[in-house]
User: Which sequence fits this backbone?
C-alpha cells in the first residue's frame, strides 16, 4: 500500500524511472515490494552516498565533524542538520 501511494507521487525523471522498473519486473511484483526496499532504491538512485559525503566535506570546520557524526541518510537530512548547527553556532556567537 505504501509503495503504491508513494509511486503515485513521483514526478519527472523519478516517475520515468519507476515506470521502467514496473515494466521490467511487472506491476504485481513492483507493488508487492516492501516499503523499505523502495526507500533504498530511491535513495540509491537519487541521493548517492558519495553526493552526501561531498556536501559534508565542504562544510565549515565549525560544524563539519558534527554533521559527519550524525550520519545523515539523505542530502535533505544533511542540509537540515548543517543548517541547525550553523544556527546554533551563530546564536552562541551573538550571545557572547
Assistant:
Amino acid at each position: 500500500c505504501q509503495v503504491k501511494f508513494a509511486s503515485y507521487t513521483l514526478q519527472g525523471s523519478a516517475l520515468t524511472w519507476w515506470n521502467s522498473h514496473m515494466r521490467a519486473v511487472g506491476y504485481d511484483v513492483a507493488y508487492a515490494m516492501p516499503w523499505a526496499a523502495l526507500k533504498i532504491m530511491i535513495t540509491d538512485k537519487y541521493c548517492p552516498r558519495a553526493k552526501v559525503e561531498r556536501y559534508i566535506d565542504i562544510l565549515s570546520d565549525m560544524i563539519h565533524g558534527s554533521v559527519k557524526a550524525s550520519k545523515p541518510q539523505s542530502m535533505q537530512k544533511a542540509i537540515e542538520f548543517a543548517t541547525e548547527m550553523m544556527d546554533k553556532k551563530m546564536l552562541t556567537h551573538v550571545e557572547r
About this structure: The chain has seven helices and no strands. Residues 50-95 form one domain. The CA atoms of residues 10 and 60 lie 34 Å apart.
